[in-house]
Amino acid sequence: MNRLPSIICTTAVTAALLLSAAPARAVPDGPIADAKPVTAVAPEGAMAARLAYNVGYEVFEKTQLEEAASVGLTGAKAKAAQAKMLAGYREARERFDAAAKADPSVKEAWNLVGYTNRRLGDYEASLAAYEKALAINPTYSEAIEYRGEAYLALNRVDDAKTAYMTLFAGSRAHAAILLSAMRTWVIERRARPAGLAKADVDALAQWIEERASVAQQTASLSPDVVVVRRWD
């Protein structure tokens, strides 16, 4: 497959602001030095994966735009928008799953199988897909961040904290996204504890502020670079 990179580099602060404004977008990139070797895929399988991924990605982007536009809706309009959003993620998941099965070496397909499953509430399937992406490239920061959000949804706070520390060492931009998700989790759990003790929620809130302080103090020492590549 031809992969033509279109590279965008920003500073850590700019990258974090951009990425926190909208979900990070995964698109297949070139060979990764630390990627796990995979079985060769026949040309027809690679082409099928490419087609399925591209169709799925169009649905994925459209669904995210529609979801963003629906913020603030209430009543019947909100319910209709929610139903449309779920249908969009189901369709995208089907396409990404087909891509991953046609070419299991495409970590981005596994990653977005994980993302769509997470948005549809199937957290175990989501985690399984992230594991497949990370088996191909253990340093795939987007999958680490997405998996961290799945851990939060399952109240696996220690695992989410570990994910943050991994990202802090390798991708400050994605670490900032996960820290923001943690703050949202704290707000939600304070409103709806879901069986969690208040002390545990407060402990994570304190940890978040400590990590945010460290990140701010060391931001100038570790400029982040975000590379965006599209699969053409």
Can you describe what's shown?
It contains 9 helices and no strands. It starts with 11 loop residues before the first helix and ends in a 14-residue tail after the last helix. It is mostly helical. It has one domain: Serine Threonine Protein Phosphatase 5, Tetratricopeptide repeat (Alpha Horseshoe). The longest helix is centred in the middle third of the chain and has 28 residues.
* Helical content band: 55-70%
Q: What Rg, in angstroms, do the CA atoms define?
A: 18 Å
Q: Describe the sheet with the most strands.
A: none
Given the structure, what is the number of helices?
9
Low-confidence stretches: 1-38, 225-232
* Rough outline: globular
Give the oligomeric state: single chain
- How much of the sequence lies in strands comes to under 5%
CATH superfamily: Tetratricopeptide repeat domain
How far is the N terminus from the C terminus?
A: 9 Å
Total individual domains:
1
Q: Structural class, judged by helices and strands?
A: mainly alpha
Task: Give the number of DSSP strands.
Answer: 0
In the CATH hierarchy, the third-tier topology is known as: Serine Threonine Protein Phosphatase 5, Tetratricopeptide repeat
N to C succession of SSEs: HHHHHHHHH
- Level-1 CATH class name: Mainly Alpha
Q: Label the CATH architecture.
A: Alpha Horseshoe
Mean pLDDT across every amino acid position: 83
